[in-house]
Automatic annotation (TrEMBL):
The active site is at H43, E97, H101. It holds the Pfam family Ribonuclease_T2. GO terms for molecular function: hydrolase activity; ribonuclease T2 activity; RNA binding; RNA endonuclease activity. GO terms for biological process: RNA catabolic process. It comes from Amborella trichopoda. This is Uncharacterized protein. InterPro entries: Ribonuclease_T2_eukaryotic, RNase_T2-like, RNase_T2-like_sf, RNase_T2_His_AS_1, RNase_T2_His_AS_2. One of its GO terms (cellular component) is extracellular region. Belongs to the RNase T2 family. Keywords: Disulfide bond, Endonuclease, Hydrolase, Lyase, Nuclease, Signal.
Length: 213
């Protein structure tokens, strides 16, 4: 075909469970703009190659410009909060994600389109609801990895990647959910390559904040 050279093969759209980021040894800090809801939030939209490798920091000349996404900032605060310490307003996290990952899809998505694409993808799937529909709740109990995968597959039609981290007692817990997205940044697809997840067959799903555990 008369194709333009492909800079990447697909995106990982990665969402994090705040309860699992926060109950680690490193702990977390709520954003200066307020405590996030007990919901999955965006970590990033990451260009990837089919073999599992990925490009990064593709355009040293491109900086994150809040003015280019001013109409999206309210939604970014809600759906893409930063939980790293010390507390921030999100700009540092969004800058990191744009510079490291976003600049590698600039041939397809400009900065506004990049952030808007991630927000739209977030709106496509309600992960908490998908898990709830399968009887899986962020209540501190343990669920089979397979039941989590199947619940999200049932809701999206595609198999997600599940990544675990460890709580302070070193128990593996549901940390991030990876969904694969076509190079236009709009459609969820079957993953060409699932990320390595670090989960065991049973994983904890911790509560977040004031939710009862
Ligand atoms: P970690 O080493 O904590 O898994 O990942 C550190 C960072 O490396 C992530 O925040 C992300 O920026 C990048 N990264 C890790 N795995 C992948 C991957 O499979 N694809 C892409 N595109 N980036 C990744
Ligand atoms: P990655 O390189 O893995 O895409 O992004 C992780 C970087 O973003 C780390 O430097 C981390 O400190 C920073 N960061 C800021 N806020 C957050 C957050 O809420 N979650 C995660 N996973 N990383 C965050
Ligand atoms: P980064 O270099 O990307 O800042 O962070 C390296 C690793 O430490 C990433 O896996 C990131 O998610 C984690 N990390 C950085 N800052 C924090 C923090 O304040 N709390 C937690 N729980 N993890 C953090």
């Amino acid at each position: 075909c008369l194709c333009v050279a492909q800079d990447f093969d697909f995106f990982y759209f990665v969402q994090q469970w705040p309860g699992s980021y926060c109950d680690t040894k490193a702990s977390c800090c709520y954003p200066t703009t307020g405590k996030p809801a007990a919901n999955f939030s965006i970590h990033g939209l990451w260009p990837n190659y089919n073999d599992g490798s990925y490009p990064s920091n593709c355009d040293p000349d491109s900086q994150f410009q809040p003015s280019e996404v001013s109409d999206l900032i309210g939604r970014m605060r809600k759906d893409w909060p930063t939980l790293a310490c010390p507390s921030g307003n999100g700009v540092k996290f969004w800058t990191h994600e744009w510079v490291k990952h976003g600049t590698c899809s600039e041939s397809v998505l400009d900065q506004h389109q990049y952030f808007e694409s991630a927000l739209k993808l977030k709106g496509k799937v309600n992960l908490v609801q998908a898990l709830q529909d399968a009887g899986i709740y962020p209540d501190g109990s343990t669920y089979s990895l397979n039941s989590i995968t199947e619940a999200i597959r049932a809701a999206t039609g595609h198999t997600p990647g599940i990544e675990c981290n460890r709580d302070e007692s070193r128990n593996p817990q549901l940390y991030q959910i990876y969904m694969c997205v076509d190079t236009s940044g709009s459609s969820i697809i079957e993953c060409p390559k699932l990320p390595r997840g670090g989960c065991s067959s049973q994983v904890e799903f911790p509560s977040f904040g004031s939710e009862s555990a």
